[in-house]
Amino acid sequence: MDWHLVGLSFITVFLSELGDKSQLAAIALSGRCQSPRAVFFGTAAALLLTSFLGAVSGGVVAELLPTRLLKAIAAVGFAILALRLLFFNHEASE
User: Torsion angle, CA of 85/90/93/94, rounded to 10 degrees?
Assistant: First the structure.
């Protein structure tokens, strides 16, 4: 196992999840319930399952499609999102 990759993945996900809506939901649930331990294990299991499903599905897609095609799809997707945010986001300006 590549421990450098494990550490890099952990740090990246940890930093990106700070202040995420799932953490805010866990804080709200643990503040209102009698068992914060149950909230911890439930949210930890949910994060593990979603991360596992994302890694498996990403691996499957990477095996089926060439890298250049995946990069092109990602680039086009981000470009579409950027254009929509720049030119078609009328709700935020009103």
Answer: -160
- Positive/negative CA dihedral, 59, 60, 61, 67: positive
- Find the angle CA(45)-CA(33)-CA(31) to the nearest 5 degrees: 90
Determine the Cα–Cα distance for residues 22 and 73; give it in Å rounded to an integer.
Answer: 28
If the chain, 94 residues long, is cut into consecutive pieces of 10 residues, what is the mean pLDDT of each piece? Answer: 87 78 81 84 88 92 93 95 86 56
pTM over 0.70: no
Range of the domain at 54: 3-93
| Domain count within the chain | 1
